[in-house]
Amino acid sequence: MAFISNRKVCVFCENNEIAIDYKEYKYLRKFLTETGKIIPGHVTGVCAKHQRRLTNAVKRARNIALLPYAVDPRNA
Amino acid sequence: MNYYETLYIVHSALEAGRLKDIVLTVEKFLKENGGEVVATEIWGKKKLGYFIDKQKYGTYILLQFKSDGMKNNNFNVEMEHNPSILAYMTVRIEEDGIREQTEDLDTQIAGKEAKTSRSARVEVKPAETETKDDAPVAEVKKTEDISSEEVVVEKAESPVEDAPSEVAATDVAPVESEENTEDEAMEVVVEEASAEEVVVEEAPAEESKEETVVEEASVEADVASEEKVEE
Question: Of B11, B46, B108, B134, which residue is most buried, by most CB within 10 angstroms?
Fold first, then answer.
């Protein structure tokens, strides 16, 4: 029986054209929970290198109010 | 020389003229502090991720510039002290992150304003076509309307005013776009209105002109009555 890996591949490693940028805040929402927390890389499959850049981008977007710091789950 | 960009949020209540003033003053600050503007991009009014100075919305403006970075602090202080700027963030960028500015400020500002007003116009257009489609339906029900009595009576007194009334009918039309689909509601309204059939018949002999007016008036009346029902 062949071994089939369940390991996810990093989206950003697969496609070099996707830039991690705080101005693309709509795309960054994919990596946030409903309440606005950053989803860990082992859940989304993003590699460590890109997760670091992603985190920085999200934090920049939060700073300039493109993304919320936290959303009340009762309002989400 | 490095490339930087500043994304700042301006109070959303500011109008086109004031907005342009602010953009120009910010660019002036930048030039005083040894920067060179590369591109300015107005993103338009957006909802903020959280309240800033009790504001829910803000106009985002992206300013990309070239500078040696020695006086960026002074520029940031100027931004901090400007009361109409809610928030700002200056970030260093690579050269390939620079955006080409295709439109000048005026067209960008005008474009953003047109977008907001265009959304209103877009609502009107389909509604107008729908009124034409619905005209036969309205014709059938024209004797059975509630508020058409007022309009028709006005027409009878002064048939010259046909044109403005038509305009009025089309003005009201956008409301219909949502409500045309609610055929059930219309039927209910028609049943309720059956008591006041007489009024339309009272209108004098200028039928040829007035038929069209009555159609439109009835469409208008349908809308009005539907609104009442919904309330």
Answer: B108
Q: Is A65–B91 a contact, with Cβ atoms under 8 angstroms apart? A: no
Q: Which residues of A touch B48 (CB under 8 A)?
A: 65
Q: What is the pLDDT of residues B67-122, one digit of tens each?
A: 998 989 999 999 999 999 999 999 999 988 888 887 888 888 888 777 766 655 55
- Best A66, A67, A72 member to test B by mutation, with max B CBs in 10 Å, is A66
CB contact under 8 Å between A65 and B58, yes or no, is: yes
Give chain B positions within 8 Å (CB) of A66.
46, 49
Instruction: Using an 8 Å CB-CB cutoff, list chain B residues near A23.
Output: 7, 62
- Taking the CA atoms of B154, B156, B159 and B165 in sequence, report the sign of the dihedral they define: positive
Q: Are residues B88 and B119 in the same domain?
A: no
Is B107 inside a domain boundary? Answer: no
pLDDT tens figures, B9-36: 999 998 888 999 999 999 999 999 999 9
What tokens does B26 get? 């910010």
Assign B115 to helix, strand or coil.
helix
A38 touches chain B (CB under 8 A): no
Q: Using an 8 Å Cβ cutoff, are B36 and B67 in contact?
A: yes
Q: Residue B47 is part of which domain span?
A: 2-102
CA angle B91, A64, A69 (to 5 degrees): 125
Neighbours of B226 (CB within 10 A): 20
Q: Do B130 and B41 fall within a single domain?
A: no
CATH number for B15: 3.30.70.60
- What pLDDT was estimated at residue B107? 84
> What's the CATH fold of domain A11-63?
30s Ribosomal Protein S18 (4.10.640)
